[in-house]
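Team,

Forwarding the record for the chain on the shared tracking sheet. I've put the sequence and predicted structure together so nobody has to dig through attachments.
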Amino acid sequence: MMKIDVRKARMHVHAEFTAQGSVLPQTVESACRGVTYRLEVESDEPPERIAGVIRNAENGCFALSAIKRPVEVQGEFSLNGEAIDLDAYPPPKRPG
């Protein structure tokens, strides 16, 4: 461990999301438009030591990594213990 003395740390996070579509026709889509954050640290440690702690925190954060470097996500679904293929049950057609 780095053994850094931090008196206080405060994180401010702002995430912007959008959603569109409708539930009944099963056209709901959501997206994350961006995330910003600000870290405020109070410490008597030298800036280079605090920078090292912040760098380690950013590089070791699983949530931040998933946002910055997204990976393929695969889902599996079951109904009453049996696998269900969503593609076999397309959403209802929109009237018109």
